[in-house]
Amino acid sequence: MSDTGIGAAVRRKEDFRFLTGQGNYTDDINRPNQTYGYIVRSPYAHATINSIDTSSVKEADGVVAVFTGEDMQVGSIPCGWGVNNKDGSPMNEPFHPALAQGKVRHVGDQVAIVIAETYAQAKDAAELLEVDYEELPASINMENAVNGGPAVHDDIPSNLCYDWELGDEAEVNAVFDNAHHITSLDIVNNRLVANPMEPRAAIGEYDTATGEYTLFTTSQNPHVIRLLMGAFVLQIPEHKLRVVAPDVGGGFGTKIYHYAEEAIVTWAAGQIKRPIKWTCERADAFVSDAHGRDNLTHCELALDADGKFIGLRVYTKANMGAYLSTFSTCVPTYLHSTLLAGVYTTPVIYSNVKAVFTNTVPVDAYRGAGRPEATYLLERLVDRAAREMGIPQDEIRRKNFIPTDAFPYQTPVALQYDSGDYFATLEGAQKMADVDGFAARKAEAASRGKLRGLGYSTYVEACGIAPSAVVGSLGARAGLFESANIRVHPTGSVTVYTGSHSHGQGHETTFAQLVSDTLGIPIENVDISHGDTNKVAFGMGTYGSRSLAVGGEAMMKALNKVVDKAKKIAAHVLEADAGDIEFADGKFAVTGTDKEMAFGDVALTAYVPHNFPHDELEPGLEEQAFYDPNNFTFPGGCHICEVEIDPETGVTEIVSMSAMDDVGRVINPMIVEGQIQGGLAQGIGQALLEGAVYDEDSGQLLNGSYMDYTMPRADDLPSFKVGTSETLCAHNSLGVKGCGEVGAIGSPPSVINAIVDALWDLGVTDISMPATPQKVWHAIQDAKMAQAAE
Amino acid sequence: MYEFNYDKANSAADAASKLAASDDGKVLAGGQTLIPTMKQRLAAPEDVIDLASAGLSGIAVDGDIVVIGAMTTHATVASSSDVQSVIPALAELAGNIGDNQVRTRGTIGGSIANNDPAADYPAACMGLGATIITTKRGLSAEEFFTGLFETALDEDEIITAVKFPKVDSANYQKFPNPASRYALAGVFVAKTGSEVRVAVTGAGNDGVFRAHKLEEALAANFSADVVDISPMPEDSMIEDLHASAAYRKNLIGVMTKRAVQAC
Ligand SMILES: Cc1cc2nc3c(=O)[nH]c(=O)nc-3n(C[C@H](O)[C@H](O)[C@H](O)COP(=O)(O)OP(=O)(O)OC[C@H]3O[C@@H](n4cnc5c(N)ncnc54)[C@H](O)[C@@H]3O)c2cc1C
Fold first, then answer.
1. pTM value?
2. Nearest residue on chain B to A779, judged by CA atoms?
3. Among A401, A317, A326, A323, residue whose Cα is nearest residue A354
4. ipTM for the predicted complex
5. Contact at CB, A708 and B250, closer than 8 angstroms
6. Domain covering A481-627 assigned CATH 3.30.365.10 in the classification
């Protein structure tokens, strides 16, 4: 292994720029003659707009233009996945206007854009906009929405987007009828606000000379935005639309989607023929960035007398919010129900998902997307079943794990896992967590009046999305391949153009390691370019832990083409047969001779092809590849959480968090550890701290600021114990699986199971996320009251 | 933020007269509350009069009294060896307000003038029996804090300093709001001779208050065992997303016991 190649903990190349304030984010970009846009948003959850009077706005200082939905008549913001109902009929797909068309459907819905010479002028003038709203009753809570609540969309009175199923319900029910034991749980998967450090921003620009539009935006996937916005919303052909996503300060899923504001500034720039910059303020981000999770689930696990899982049935209501965001429909179905086998051999599974419209911000994928929800319900069920049947937590898991020699393993819920070793990750995590010493630690804590608990989560997830053929058959309206272009410059340095997009993941380092390792050149000689549709051929972007497993594989494919071509060049120069050229350590050598040529010389020759046989050998050294994976990748592992609860205040302290994850081959262990730590922080955030709360009547977001929405902070988190245990992905050349989401997927149930473990003896059997101090305290009080009553 | 006129005062008297001359003026201290509220357009003063050069910052010990200038930052109070040695609980309280940035800007005068029901300093003022010195008079803490975000200050009256008497022992226990880290319930217990004062912030519907029944019980027997919060009316407690009234009431009991034990 070289010190910059595969497996090396190379320091992140991009960090100098970020840490010295030299990143180039959308809001850092300023275009000549630029104006500023302010988006006027709905203060109501549900209202009819009788009229809008823009006259005073137009007269205000500095105002260039104001546009409302009446002005902006464009296509619907599209949803990327179709999901069919049980009966085969297509889902309900409401029109999703960029600017409200006569009605607003959530607090924060876009009503108008005011454009002025300065941002302050735009914001001042926006206060003069007179909107005559007629407030309507709103559907906020999902149960109400599907039980006769007010219709969010007039043409969808049921508020149901779809009623979907996977599996044979009758077959599963028959198994339950004969089960030795059934464990049931009602689960709330709390609604989260991603809150990336950089708020969303967009600059729209129109070039009157060429008729070309440019959109600078905070996106995880600029090509996808170009396609969705160009083809569906604004009808701008690709060759006239450039989308640039420069440095992006965190995404976590919420920057995948095509947002109204992107279309608004692009369209409006065409109207006023000047660039328009819009930057979201944090308060607006809370009510306009897609939220995550928000499922209500009833689930049941059937077991035989020996504790083997014999069946699972799961009934979920998934909140879509007011409109269908890009990925929203696939999250609770294809990214959730297909994961319900987990790491277990459960033979029959049934899942029903009802997707529900409510007068709330649209909900979409957030770090993990569907897999955390699946893992959470499964691991809570397994934990409870073990308690009910008196089986130790590790034993019930081992009893039901997919055996290590059973891969490839076909689950009953469509997916085929290619590799994994769940016994190894469980054992590794148990060692890190010092499970053997837990009883003593619990006793010591009890002597201080504190309650200790230990919780397990053993999980698998599907990432590296996704094989186009598979997702196409599942309703995706796009393929999920990736592209890479390797441009070798005449002096041997390399620029890689990738369709993946880095917004904190460290791609500029990890990808450069692949190139350094493969071509045997110094890592300093490699730059990674991404995020500009005018530079990169095409790209599906970064989400679903796909960048290395899909984007990296595309790069390997292109690199192999480069090496093949370089061999031909070397063979020509060294007057040998291409088949006799060996390439190692950056040198091309003729087998069995001392004739060799360095990579840099081959590169130079490629561009100074004085005596190339032109019918056999083209000048230049640049290769393009597209890679479409054969399957998902399946990282898995075990997270063990140990908590200590103060029964007087209900405060839960995480005293240790041990994560043993199998993410496939590790290219850069430091970056992998960082990704896992970040995921754990967000998982713990979901379990203990975060949760968007709406007022059930008014539909106002009650905790729409950091004064009330609890983001995890460093002092909320323990010093993590993180380890990796490798089984290689069987269907890609690097053997990589993905590490971006495992922390957030695996950890939440381990935290809640630990809390339940700590409180079980007091009679507390369940606690919902986020397990805030007051919730834990009330649970303890309620259990005491119940015991006193007995 | 709306447009406003910015002016600097070179003394407290100058600030008071500028305030009196303005239709809608506000003095600016550390700006940790005023500026964010202006940015959110919740406050729109016409004139902002900066106290930074008014000479109101500094800490002096006068016998058994610590005098803290209104413009003294939380960080200065927290790190002052005078405060640490005379009333260590006060230094510790200041050191747990907000974060580093807030502590290096925010001031004691700004904090108590604002009288946020979840702020920490009001508990110290009530608990220690401080006197708030203004451009017009001296006020006891009980007189000064009059309700949620309300004080006895006149429109053109400025706090110049706060005087804290030395006590035998004192301790402040804060249970932070998990999101904002302001006090969800904070209890300041101080004991001098046979007198005990218990001041509660973060929990009361009317802002900071003294828990007289707890004070009496503790004066008779200064022990955590006598702390009994059951007579406290639950309907006098703030109830919000983060804490029910019952939970807040419980926290008052727990924090009081811990403060007594730490005294
Ligand atoms: C992120 C954050 C976290 C915080 N956490 C906490 C916390 O945990 N606990 C806590 O107690 N506080 C907390 N605060 C508030 C902080 O302590 C502020 O410093 C305080 O509320 C206001 O002080 P200031 O000096 O910034 O006053 P300013 O914001 O400048 O002024 C506040 C108000 O007081 C008036 N005023 C200021 N000085 C005087 C004076 N001398 N005489 C008369 N009126 C005056 C102003 O006109 C204004 O109306 C936090 C603030 C932030 C931003």
1. 0.97
2. B247
3. A317
4. 0.96
5. no
6. yes
